Amino acid sequence: MTNRRVVVTGMGVVTPLGRNKEELFENLLNGRTDVRNLTSEFPWMNDCSVQIGSAFGPGSMNGEFQFDFEQLGIPKKDIKKLGRHTQYSLAAAHEAVSDLGILERGSLRDRTGVCIGVGFGGIREIEDEKQSQLERGIRKVSPLFVSRVIPDAPSGWISKVYGFHATDSPSLNSACETGISAITFGYDKIKLGYADVMITGGAESPFGQLPFGCFARMGATTSSFNDNPREASRPFDRDRSGFVMSEGAGILVLEELVHAKRRGAKIYGELLGYGTSTDACHETHPDPTARFTTRAIELAIRNSGIKPEQVGYINCHGTSTYDNDALESLAIKNAFILGGNAYKLALNSTKSLTGHCMGAAGAIEAIVTLLTISTGLIHKTANLQNPDSRPYEYKSENGDIVRNPRAICDLDYTTETMKKEVNYALSNGFGFYGHNGCLCLARFRR
Fold it and tell me: Which of 85, 94, 259, 317 is catalytic?
């Protein structure tokens, strides 16, 4: 079964920067961002050192999130069961599966499975319900609470709406690598013959006071650009000072090649393989040697059956944090040291414009990577004015300061949107607790 090829036949996106994949990609190519000051929409941010992000709301370029759930057959009485992360997932899934042409063919539903990764689940709904419980008492806790917040709700609702039965419709969580984890789960199910089609991806709705305040206190998000939010997300730049929180969902339809060709499906590209690893190092800081990040990239190339020099583009994790950007640059240089040339690669960071969609980021950026391959257009990394040439510093176990002169941001991060033919590309995703993932995506070759 392992010779089964896996292609992508559907893609859907919902983010504040784009209500569908075409709108998102157009805004990326034009260097637009929806990062803004959010204190008028979330008044509690006035008491926080960080006051910016990219969220659906009245100040967003796309306004409040809106979707007609009744078109999916969800009655009005059930819509209140949907947490925001589930709403985003259903909207993105609708775009992804709308051109599949399999929804009326029950036999194919039995060979279609679902796996949607989720970061925080319904954190805003948890906070709202806790406040209600404090004010009204435990007897007034909503019986719909669990349905709204549970992490597997997106997978469950997509399976329920479309009648997909091939897998147990799980949810995965590997922090900010979550979207990639869900995609690799779907890839394996198809390669091993458990399914012919997998609906995969990630969703995130993280704008609760607890995660937002926690990230601010730990210094993971930037507090230096509250008055100039559009310049806050600046991956690989000397003045980067933390990531910018965002939300949304990205859904990909993976399909076995023969199955897709038999029904005349549109093929956006091929998922050749992937590589994963774990730092096993620290809760929030990556391994300072980047050796396991390097391993994930190397495995993605090796498992895909291509050579390093065939890779033309990498969609970086690129979070605008001190650790990630220097160490991801080092990992890329390490992974290409025996073949190819890291300095000839075109790199970029989608997060420089979208912000960090966390549990959804890996899936959204995989979609951006496939659109880059199909169009030959690579969007710029925004706000990269001074690539960081300072050697990366970290404290060793014995307390000494160690400097790595190779861990500097000196690669080609694409500071202006450019055109380039790309046949093979990588999409990176890393997360707290040392999760590392890398997808190898390619132009479809018959």
Answer: 317
Q: Which amino acid is at 270?
A: E
Marked catalytic residue, from 115, 176, 357, 438? 176
Burial category of 292 from C-beta neighbours within 10 Å (exposed 0-12, middle 13-18, buried 19 and up): buried
Q: Do 184 and 120 contact (CB within 8 A), yes or no?
A: no
Active site residue 317: yes
Contact between 57 and 41 under an 8 Å Cβ cutoff? The reply is yes
What are the DSSP calls for 231-257, one per residue? GS--TTBTT---B-BB-EEEEEEEEEH
Report the CATH number at residue 29. 3.40.47.10
> How many distinct structural domains can be found in the chain?
1
Active site residue 356: yes
Across 108-121, average pLDDT:
92
Q: How confident is the model at residue 102 (pLDDT cuts 50, 70, 90)?
A: low
Q: Which of 85, 356, 379, 435 is catalytic?
A: 356
| 103 has a pLDDT exceeding 60 | no
Its domain, for residue 356, covers 6-442
Report the distance separating Cα 405 and Cα 421, nearest Å.
Answer: 32
Distances in Å between the Cα of 317 and the Cα atoms of 139, 349, 381 are: 45, 7, 12
> What are the start-end ranges of the H helices in 111-152?
123-136, 145-149
CB 342 within 8 A of CB 333: yes
Residue 200 CA to residue 153 CA, distance in Å, equals 14
pLDDT at 105 over 60: no
Residue 165 is a catalytic residue: no
Residue 1 lies in a domain: no
**Token pair 């036999």 is at which residue?**
107
Per residue in 215-226, pLDDT tens?
A: 999 999 999 999
pLDDT the model gives residue 108: 77
Q: Nearest-CA neighbor of 35 among 352, 350, 321?
A: 352
